[in-house]
What we know:
This protein has 16 helices and no strands.
Amino acid sequence: MASIVNITEKLGSQAAAKAFTLTSAVWFAFATSFGMIAAGYLIAPDFMANIEFIQFGRSRPIHVNLVLFGFVTPGLLAAALYYAPRLLRTHLYSQRLGVVTAILWNLTLVIGVISLGMGYSQGREYAELPWAVDLMIAGLFGLVIFNLFMTVHRRQEPILYVSIWYACAAVVLTAVGYCLGNVIWKPDSGALLGIPDAILLWFYGHNIFGLLLTPLALGVAYYVLPLATRSPLYSHTLSLIGFWSLIVVYTHVGTHHLLQVPVPTWLKAISIVDSVGMVIPVMVFLINIWFTVKGKLGDIHADIGAKFVFTGTIMYFFANIQGSFMALPQVQRVTHFNNWVVGHAHLGVFAFAGITALGGLYFILPKITKKPLYSRYLADLQYWLILIGVSVMIIDLTIVGLLQGNAWLNGETVYRVLPEIHLYYVIRASAGLFILSGAYLGLYNIVRTLFFNPGAATE
């Protein structure tokens, strides 16, 4: 207990936000490193093949889980732990609890990486982590829920701004969805049998993005962009319409991953209709936030955090259009089971939620340290490295997916397509180098800003 108190005191004010900021930056570097290893295997399958810990079947789930729970989620939570007390006109219920949560979060990720590297995996998409780690993650979300909701309970502001709605809904719905999707009540297998397991898995798998990353990212955008542009929110009513339509519509889209398998037709129909219907909450949000910042692009460009976040909103538009389109059965005949889906995942998780998380971190860093960012130049360089890298990767994977899908549709075998797409895998890895460089530059910049920043104090 004494050591926790010492760590909290050393971090100073905003200790919880600082701890989660550092967590996000560190695991972003690790996540992209494992992503590069996995990309290397796609170019040269014998690449470091004798090192069991980083074989493709292990490095890939490590990469995915570190992006989801190591980089993006802690980054968005760092922003939430900063903005929630300000919007509620109170103090965070417990900075010490926030620091404890961050420490346990990192311990959980370390155990998860070691477990997956040693081959202890439940073998389910986005739900590979073993049962003990699942319990730890569920408990961590419980701690975040308690800290946030006690802060809301002690608020001095009677009106809950929409960012609070999004942050609270994200952690509560994810805590429930994570336990369901990982079949946490069956420690021996972590899975049901047959089609019911597939339905439950994709209910969870898609909602990790839809009910965790998306609402947290939208909460950050609704906080950062009006402040950076010194503009009132265009419409509070639209923000609530967007919130409730997201919660209602997004919840049921996961089954569009299973249109090719014998799940109930009515469930397929709901998933397709809701996938197309996602245009509603997305466009409501975009109209609201873009009208808020209309005519203020200069202010956005001047604030590096706002520049990241605004770019994230543009990526959100493309992710939604592509997602609604690829949920159509005729489109899936070409796009399913190939690299188109991988490109779409990078567009949603990284280009939208990840870039927004970075924007939130850069926006709050000067405020939680009371000093200017260590290097605006490095932050700008990171912005362009990541934007170029992820854009090239998404375009490349989209092309590869179309090549694969059309070849398979015309009866071509998988192995005969591989030589055609080898060059595209080289391009993909090259784009990954841009992202990897951006991750390590960002880590250096954030660590220097937090701990070794000689800059003058700011208000």
